TrEMBL record:
An individual GO BP term: transposition
Domain of life from the UniProt record: Bacteria
Entries under NCBIfam families matching the protein: transpos_IS30
Pfam families per record: HTH_38
GO molecular function, one term: nucleic acid binding
Protein name, entry field: Integrase catalytic domain-containing protein
GO cellular component term, pick one: cytosol
Domain Integrase catalytic: 164-326
Entry keyword set: DNA recombination
Amino acid sequence: MTYQHFSIEERESLQYMWWDRKSIRSMAKVLNRSPSSISRELKRNFPACRNTYTPRVAQERALSKRRCRGRTNRLKNDRIRQYVVFHLKKRWSPEQIAGKIKSQIGESISHEAIYRFIYASISYGKPRPGFEDLRPYLRRHRKMRQPKGVRRYQRLSKYQGLSIDKRPSIVNTRHRLGDWEGDTVESVNHRPGINTLVERKSGLVFITKLNGKAADNTTKAIQSRFRNLPDKLKHTLTMDNGPENSDWRSIEETAGTKCFYAHAYHSWERGTNENTNGLIRDYYPKKTDFSNISEEEIQFIESELNTRPRKRLGWKTPLEVFSVALGG
């Protein structure tokens, strides 16, 4: 069996579970990894000065080790280089580029070669003469995400919504379309931001600008995006347990879906949504004031994300997969 490196999402989940005092075996079960792999990852990345696990540091250390195995300062030819640079600037990941390049220009290259090309162009933190710094176009995780729900831990009980524990088991398999995850990306100073809805199987995302932080604003956003979907494409919606998502009864009645709440500070239970929010932060980092972002810009980002090829979809795009179910 080929060893699969830990992803940044897995490392963030490890951090949350460590904070939650989960056992090694519990962590391994959640991440579908062996207990020995979890144990090695934690031991390897516990700094002597602090008794804590930091996913950003662990990820950067792992990437650094891989980069040091060998470098090259150029791709095979100009055609490949132009394709790679163009799509990096469209915020495609090296894996997405490597997965799609052969079908589009008849050439092939590995994602590792793309990473080597990017980092071999840098010397002492600056681009080498004649080279462009392409690192800003990679996904970065240099700022730790604050664990959601820590301050809201005691609030879930008053909403009396269904726990994720009651959600149908078929949702976990991703075998069907129509199971969604929802969240809010906050604006600067906790002002109204955007609502994100992500379909678990295809990865299709709906991004809607919010006019306020009250629950009715989130409810209206969900209603507007679900209104024209057929019933077969809106089975369930799993949400964060914040007050902005408290009006689950109205959502169920008007949007035609069944709502469930994730556990407090268990962001991995909405992993698809969390990952997509990270992609959105590539365009709009923390401290963005979404009141200054137009609806047109929001829809442009939505289109960009929905037309990126995904490895788990066989390099199809979320829109391609979702459109088949829509009959078009």
